[in-house]
Amino acid sequence: MLNNFQAKTFIVIFFLFFNGKILGQPTKNRSLDPVIKSFLVPGWGQNELGYKKRSKIYGYLEVGILVSIYTSSKYSNEIKRNYIAYASEHAGVVSEGKDREFWVDIGNYNTLNEYNDEHLRNRESSDLYPQNSQWNWEWDSSDKRRFFESKRIQSDKLKLFSTFAIGGLVLNHFVSSIDALYLKRLSDSKSFTIKPFMQKKEMILGYKIEFNL
Prior knowledge:
Radius of gyration: 30 Å
Number of strands: 2
Strand content: 5-15%
Shape: elongated
Number of helices: 7
C-alpha cells in the first residue's frame, strides 16, 4: 500500500526519532520502551501502561485507516482498469506504454488530430503525439469521452484520498507514541509530599511541597 519512497521515508523517520532513545536506555533494561511500542503498533504502549480504553481508540483508528487505504486504492485501480478498457473499445486506444498524462489528454480531446492542432496553434510542439496507430485515438462520441473523463477523475480522487490516508497512518503512529510518552511520565510520577519547615531567625512557618518525578 505504501510506495517505495513513502516506505523508505517512514523507516528513516523511525530510525532518527527512536534510535537515540533505544541507545539511551540502560543496558540492563533494553526491552522495548512503551513509546517505541506505540510507534510500531499504535495503542500497544498504552495497553502496557494500563490504559486499555485509550489503547483501543488508537487500535480502531489504525484499522480504520488501513481499511480506507486498502479499499480506496483497490477501487481506484479497478476503475482505472475499466476506463482503460473503455477507451480501447470506444476510442481505439492502444493502452500499452501510456502514462497518466495521456489518459488526461484523451479525456479532453475527441481525436489525436484535434489535440495536436490546438497545441500547434499554441506553439507547444514538444507536447505533440506522433501521428501513428500507437498513439492515435478517436472517440465514438463526445458523450463517451466525457463518461471516460468522469471515471478517470473518480479514480484519481480515490488515489489521492489513499495518499492522504497514508499520511494519516503515519500521523497516528507519531501521536500514539507521543501520547505513550506522556502516559509513561504520568505513571512514573509518584505522589507529592508535603513537609513542614520553620526558619527560626525569620520566624517563618510553612510547608514545602515536593513532586517526585
